[in-house]
Amino acid sequence: MEELELYDNQITKIENLAKLQKLRVLDLSFNNIRKVENLEELANLEIMYLLSNRIKVIENLENKPKVKEIELGSNKIEKIENLRDFPSLQTLVLAKNKIAVIENLAPICHLRVLNLTCNTISKIQGLESLVYLEELYLAENYIEKIENLDKNNKLLILDLSYNKIAKMENLEHMTVLEDLWVSLGVIGKQNRQLRKTGLLETNAQFEDCVF
Q1: Are strands 192-197 and 207-210 parallel, antiparallel or unpaired?
Q2: SS3 label, residue 101
Q3: Ordered strands of the 47-49 beta sheet
Q4: DSSP 113-169
Q5: Strand, helix or coil at 107?
Q6: What phi and psi values does residue 182 have, to the nearest 5 degrees?
Q7: In the 8-state DSSP scheme, what is residue 51?
Q8: pLDDT digits (tens, 9 = 90+) for 122-142
Q9: What is the CA radius of gyration of the chain?
Q10: Nearest to 92 by CA among 5, 101, 109
């Protein structure tokens, strides 16, 4: 068996998977799992879906050299940690958690997509090692300033919508950026969602939408 989907059940514990050593895709989303565990023998895993559970800690993910995608959105995770030994990891989804600080990402320097939408992040930081990053999603946080993205000049998509950003700045080096979402004046009565498509070096206009 190479793919196992146990999506939307009442599973409370990850167990009895040790014999599935050829497993490439594991989907345990929309269950009641509280802990990542008992995955040690699954060295051939490439994709892990653990969305919408009750997981609080990123842990017990060692010996996963082939993993390309990890999705842990809609859990109760408070800290980015224990992401070592993932030389193939390209996509990490931690949206809708309780993460306050962007940190501990240096070991996964080949990451292409990072989704931290809807957390409690107040500052853009800790992304210096992600020089291959192409898509960064930080919408619905508490970010006030666009900063510390100097090393991320391969970004194609940057989503900063629904934050507290008051000024467009520090984007001049992103010459390949194709899509940019930024909400200006999000605290006021009229929230304007600004979206730009096209290279930053062009004079293309933002699209203004009222929400």
Answers
A1: antiparallel
A2: coil
A3: 3-5, 25-27, 47-49, 69-71, 91-93, 113-115, 135-137, 157-160, 179-184, 192-197, 207-210
A4: EEE--SS---S--S-TT-TT--EEE--SS------S-TT-TT-SEEEE-SS------
A5: helix
A6: -140, 135
A7: -
A8: 999 999 999 999 999 999 999
A9: 18
A10: 109
- CB < 8 Å & 24+ apart, contacts of 39-42: 39/14, 39/64, 41/17, 42/17
Length of the chain: 211
Residues 54-64 pLDDT 10s: 999 999 998 89
- pTM comes to 0.88
Q: Given the structure tokens 């629904």, which residue do they identify? A: 162
Pairwise CA distance, residues 86 & 71, whole Å? 14
Alpha-carbon distance 189 to 128, whole Å?
35
Structure-block tokens of residue 130: 């992600």
